[in-house]
Amino acid sequence: MRHSLVRVFTNAMTKPPLMRLGTRLAWLVLIVLSAYYLYRAVHYRFLVPNRLGPELLNKQLWYFGHLIVALPVLIGAPLQFVSTLRSRRPALHRFIGRIYVAGATLAALTAIYLGGIVGEYEGSRLPIVLLASLWLFFTLSAWRCAVRRNYAAHRLFMIRSYGLALVLVWLRLMYDLQDWLFFYVANEEVRDTTREWASWVVPLLAMELWLSWLPLLRSRKPGPPNSPLIAATSLAQDNPR
């Protein structure tokens, strides 16, 4: 573990200065957008009249609970990607990671309830439930890989989990740009449903393109003997039609 952390730190320090600057600027923009759209979401849900539901146990308690457990996720997640923190303070990295896993798990479960059971719009229920389920799966998978010390897979699942945690940014950003992004959708309800789907499907596809598909296309190494593709090919050859 020590050698892998040192290698990550060394690789981060050997990056070109322009690349390091671009990474920091990207993180700064992402953090500013997260703070701004978190404020927008809190204002819309908690400060606009009649947005919390008529009764405490109907929606209000669930919305407050979802916000409380989601805040540590949004605040702590960027720290998990700081290479110097991982290399110099691994205990703190693990502590923040446990908080993230607990908060993301509870936030995903409350999102499933709020979106699938008491959701306001019928067209939004399925995309919210699928989003929350995938978020829960990625989060628990990242935790499982960390426990098994498979840090390469842990990093990939953590990136996917955080990417879906930022759905409040993608959703609100698409809302602000909807006249340009969804100009072809005139019906407001259909446009709302389209935003709900696109707010997590588009980021998920972008992450998979970056994490999985492009590396596979660039790789010149053959797959392992027990890979699903080779196994399927062998099975097809053994059982011709």
Number of helices: 11
Radius of gyration: 21 Å
Q: Name the overall outline.
A: globular
| Total discrete domains | 1
Question: Could you explain the architecture of this structure?
Answer:
The protein is built from 11 helices and no strands. The protein is 82% helix and 0% strand. The N terminus is likely disordered. It is mainly α. Helix 6 runs parallel beside helix 10 and helix 8 crosses helix 10. The chain has one domain.
Short description, anyone?
This protein is mostly helical and 241 residues long. Helix content is 82%, strand content 0%. The protein has helices at 2-13, 17-47, 56-80, 83-88, 90-116, 122-147, 151-165, 167-176, 178-181, 188-218, 228-238.
Question: Helices, strands, pairings?
Answer:
Blueprint: H1 2-13, H2 17-47, H3 56-80, H4 83-88, H5 90-116, H6 122-147, H7 151-165, H8 167-176, H9 178-181, H10 188-218, H11 228-238
Key terms for this structure?
241 residues; 0% strand; single chain; 82% helix; mainly alpha; globular; disordered N terminus; 11 helices
